[in-house]
Amino acid sequence: MNVIEEFLNLVLPGICVLCQRKGSPLCSACKSVFSGPVIEVQRSNTDGFLLKGFAVSHYSKSAATLVHELKENSQTSLASAMAKHMATSLAAGLKENNSFRSVCLVPIPSKKTSFQKRGFNPSLLLAKKISNHLRKQKSIKIQVENCLRLNREVLDQASQVGLARRQNLAGAISLVRPPSSKEIWLVDDVVTTGSTLLEAARCLSESGLRVSGFVVFAETLPKHLQKARAAAI
């Protein structure tokens, strides 16, 4: 995304991407759709490593639209509203776990080709916006550390399933520099199998760092878990 696109995003009258109401890229009525209870999420790998986190929403049609507009249509003005809900989810989780202290948000890195196409890393943008919202709560000292990178090109995770997702990411993330805070929370837009988040956590843990958890805007279940959830309803 170039400077002109960013400027136009800020100054032109917005149209809600969900209901097409004029006035804002995400109107107050549509924002309220994402004001439900915090969704607790967990993902694990074949070694039994468990990573817990929080999501704002299940991957509904509305959530999918916001993620698509942010990432593929450079609607960066949506990031603040999305991040506000993510910040609320994270703050609730931190409070529940008595973790109000120095927190470090570490965004999942973008592929080089994706960054070149978009001009920004959606996860980094969301992390910065989350930080802005949480800094208003004086009890939380928060920082953003863009300290991970992909050390090779990987396939689009959306086109992969199950084992292929894990193999695609295996060993692909490396640490540029260690974050200064001991309480690390990973930030991404969507979690499916959790392969990307688990690989990031592996990278950090191998450097002697512990990941407390993750926060995402939406959770979409892998197909086998979708079937299990449907059967349980």
Q: What does this molecule look like?
A:
The chain has 233 residues and is of the alpha/beta class. It has a single domain (33-232), classed as Rossmann fold. 40% of the residues lie in helices and 21% in strands. It has helices at 3-11, 28-31, 61-72, 79-96, 112-118, 122-134, 162-169, 195-206, 223-232; strands at 39-44, 50-58, 102-107, 141-144, 148-150, 173-175, 183-191, 211-219. A six-stranded mixed beta sheet has the order 1-2-8-7-3-4, sandwiched between helices. Strands 5-6 form a two-stranded antiparallel sheet. The protein is globular. The mean pLDDT is 85. Belongs to the ComF/GntX family. InterPro entries: ComF/GntX_DNA_util-trans, PRTase-like, PRTase_dom.
Portion of residues in helices? 25-40%
How many helices in DSSP terms? 9
Predict the CATH topology: Rossmann fold
Count of DSSP strands: 8
InterPro entries: ComF/GntX_DNA_util-trans, PRTase-like, PRTase_dom
Family: Belongs to the ComF/GntX family.
Provide a concise account of the structure shown.
This protein has nine helices and eight strands. The chain is α/β, with parallel strands linked by helices and 233 residues long. The protein has one domain (33-232): Rossmann fold, CATH 3.40.50.
Properties at a glance:
alpha/beta; Rossmann fold; 9 helices; PRTase-like; PRTase_dom; ComF/GntX_DNA_util-trans
